[in-house]
Write a structure and sequence with these properties.
Elements: E1 3-4, H1 7-14, E2 26-31, E3 34-40, E4 46-54, E5 62-66, E6 74-80, E7 88-95, E8 100-102, E9 130-135, E10 138-144, H2 145-158, E11 162-167, E12 170-174, E13 188-191, E14 194-197, E15 207-213, E16 218-222, E17 230-233, E18 241-249, E19 252-261
Parallel strand pairs: 9-12
Antiparallel strand pairs: 1-6, 2-3, 3-6, 4-5, 4-7, 7-8, 9-10, 11-12, 13-14, 14-17, 15-16, 15-18, 18-19
């Protein structure tokens, strides 16, 4: 079972052969059937910190843990050891103001002193001034540079997802895939007859909603909500189960949550 490493385990790691430096340095240590990732955070203004895993050290990283209290000076995470010796980890963290960093990747046994920050790439857009946004392998949006900056900030401040700039015109959103802390929405939720959408000041603000399957597959988008309350029929979702939505206000992510449709339709 995945869990946050307790304080006494972290202290024991810090006293091992490598004296752990602060971020971007961190350690990856094997303890029997477990792998422990630990770090010292010098940033009191840290607003998000994710641990990511990959099997090739360069790409295909996915977030496996998001620190509930990213500003803590010492913390860690442990998971079951993967059935391979080539499991790499890195840390993604965000500071107030929107500045974000990726550490270089490490596997168990690597010297943490060689860690440095991966350089951040610019996002100046393609030759037409647009940036393509992809979730995993699916293109979900194409925005101008200015609208992209609003979108970027809303993702960093309001979700646990990871924001990975691949080049100056392509950004990949990696959905958080760790423990899910579910909080029902007050704006979009399931009722007996369908999905209710109730929003404030809908005539003076521009709202849009994107709906997804639980695994992140896009379903459909309402580009401009012009009335509220609005009731969506259950038949729009084809089956029972969990669905995810993203609610945007003036191109900024206002809320990301989910709802459950029962089998009574």
């Amino acid at each position: 079972m995945q869990k946050i490493v307790s304080f006494f385990i972290i202290i024991s790691i810090l006293s091992t052969s490598y004296a752990q430096d602060t971020l971007p340095h961190f350690t990856v240590t094997e303890r029997g059937t477990k792998v422990i990732i630990s770090w010292v955070n010098p940033y009191k203004t840290c607003i998000q910190l994710n641990v990511q895993r990959s099997f090739d050290s360069l790409k295909n990283f996915r977030t496996i843990f998001s620190a509930p209290s990213p500003e803590l000076p010492q913390n860690g995470y442990t998971e079951n050891k993967m059935p391979t010796n080539r499991t790499f980890y890195r840390i993604f963290y965000v500071l107030e103001g929107g500045t974000y960093f990726f550490t270089q990747s490490l596997k168990a046994g690597d010297d943490p002193r060689r860690i440095s920050l991966n350089p951040l790439r610019s996002t100046n857009g393609d030759r037409y001034g647009y940036i393509t946004i992809r979730r995993k392998d699916t293109v979900i949006n194409r925005l101008s540079v200015q609208r992209f900056r609003n979108y970027r900030d809303s993702i960093l401040y309001n979700t646990r997802d990871t924001f990975d700039v691949r080049n100056d015109s392509l950004v990949v959103i990696s959905p958080y895939e760790g423990i899910d802390y579910y909080r029902p929405s007050i704006y979009i939720y399931a009722v007996r007859d369908g999905i209710n959408i109730t929003l404030p000041n809908v005539l003076s603000r521009r709202y849009s909603v994107k709906f997804y399957e639980e695994n992140g597959t896009p379903l459909f988008t309402i580009h401009h909500l012009k009335e509220t309350p609005l009731l969506l029929d259950k038949s729009n979702f084809f089956h029972a189960g969990w669905f995810v939505f993203e609610l945007y206000e003036e191109d900024r992510l206002k809320e990301k949550s989910r709802f459950f449709l029962s089998k009574d339709f």
